[in-house]
Amino acid sequence: MTRETVRRAAAESVGTAFLVLAVVGSGIMASRLSPADTGLALLENSIATGAALVALIIALQPVSASFNPVVTLVERALGLIDTTTAAALIAAQIFGGLAGTVLANLMFGLDAVSLSGHERSGLGLWLGEAVATVGLLLIVFGTVRSGRADRVAFAVGGYIAAAYWFTSSTSFANPAVTIARSITDTFAGIAPASVPGFVVAQLAGGVLGFLLVRLLYPSLTGAADAADRKVLS
């Protein structure tokens, strides 16, 4: 593994950890501040998550700022990174996500690991995850390939904050975050038994998203791929 790959993996791990800290931590805070109003708690959770995403992408984009195995797999499918790098980044994302959940639990005086009892399953929720993931990929790669790479952070943060509300699943759209959220029995948690269905739906959304990106934003020259590498790496 090269020094550059280690550097990128570190950025992915730290970024995913802070993303999950935002998701889980704000979920705990929201449920404590608004225990009788689930809608308000979700609003608080979505705003915190979207804002954190904007900040994290801006800060870590010069190194690596995917924070999502599906995005990384699409980068690999597009030929932007090699298999070894993709594997290292995905492992870092999963590790970072789990670390973020543990830290969030500890910050709020909970057990470091507590398996969630919040079951999330059913065709409607799985469809919501697939839709959320397709949309995320279109936002990420579409923004880059349309020449507005400097707006990726705001586009992604805004999309995720909105997708909390317009998808039935509240838009996990990220296997690493989904796995991480299984070890917190709080507002943002998901039961371990529900994780496989969500991950399969996210991967299915990833395939469709990849096909749409290739259809809508074909690489007409090497310049487009070079721009992708610079922004997404």
TrEMBL record:
Main location group: membrane
Annotated Gene3D superfamilies: Glycerol uptake facilitator protein
> What is the annotated localization of this protein?
Membrane
UniProt KW keywords? Membrane, Transmembrane, Transmembrane helix, Transport
State the Pfam families in the record. MIP
**Does the keyword section mention Ligase?**
no
Record field: transmembrane: 9-30, 50-74, 86-108, 123-144, 151-167, 187-213
Give the membrane topology.
Multi-pass membrane protein
Under InterPro entries, the record lists: Aquaporin-like, Aquaporin_transptr, MIP
Sequence similarity: Belongs to the MIP/aquaporin (TC 1.A.8) family.
Q: What is this protein called?
A: MIP/aquaporin family protein
